[in-house]
Amino acid sequence: MQATGKMEELSIKIKIGDREYPMKVKRADEERIRIAGKLINEKLRSYREQFGIEDKQDLLAMVAFDCLIDKMAVEETQKGIDQTVFEKVNQLNNLISQSIL
Fold first, then answer.
1. Where are the domains of the chain?
2. What CA–CA distance (Å, rounded) separates 7 from 13?
3. For residues 46 and 42, what is the distance between their CA atoms, to the nearest angstrom?
4. Residue 40: which of 20, 22, 60 has the closest Cα?
5. 33 and 25 in contact (C-beta within 8 Å)?
6. pTM for the complete prediction?
7. What is the pLDDT of residue 59?
8. Which residues contact 16 (CB under 8 A, 6 or more apart)?
9. How far from chain centre, in Å, is Cα 23?
10. CB neighbours (10 Å) of residue 59?
11. Fewest beta carbons less than 10 Å away: which of 3, 29, 39, 60?
């Protein structure tokens, strides 16, 4: 097999709801993509059972909304962690500067 310099791509199908979506993915991303498809289907099933909703569009909208809220929460938490780390580094720099003088 020749090295082409490109990451090897796989052709896979991910089933979301009742539809299959063919896609080409990097081998390194395949597992993450399959897990994401599985998680979406689990959320769809959960909303269907919890709220008795059968309309696919409504279910997909709720899952998309839920996923975006989760992403925003993670980003907000990460921003807080980054700010805390920045403040701690500044405090350490100030302590080091004071001890050198």
1. 9-100
2. 19
3. 6
4. 60
5. yes
6. 0.71
7. 95
8. 37, 40, 41, 44
9. 18
10. 20
11. 3
